[in-house]
Predict the 3D structure of the following.
Amino acid sequence: MAACHGWASGRLPGRLHWYAVLGVILVLMGSERSAHASGRDVTAAVVAETQLDEVIAQACQDYCQGNRRSGRLRSVRVARLDRDHFAVLADVALRNHQYQDGPIGGFALYDYTVRATGKGTLTFSTCRLRIDEIVVHDDLIGLQSLAQSLVGTVHDIDGCRRFSFLH
């Protein structure tokens, strides 16, 4: 069972932990087609109360391509399943962009976005998040195999009970 500590508390993990961090990022990604897509949108709260958006941006700096690459958290939704469990759904965009200056202006050599969607189950009493499903769309940089290897893993989400959106 894998454990990932740090993103919720503001500590960015070391490079050796990036695969686990990417797994948590990917599990937090939700599909609009999910039965729980009507859950509460908590994107603003996640950005305000965690370092997840910074972790996504740094992961893209490390793994995406191009001199104008960027990663961002598009959305996070939670839906209560029962007294102790929440469905967590999110969407992340990883932009791969290479821009070249030229004598008469500049142009994009390439510009494409990899989107990752997935879902997980957060157990409130233990602050543990299980990765249930991950789908990577338009994957030109090879994240799908990493994503599939993380399905079924469980990650500690430091201090999840402090999140007001779970009460």
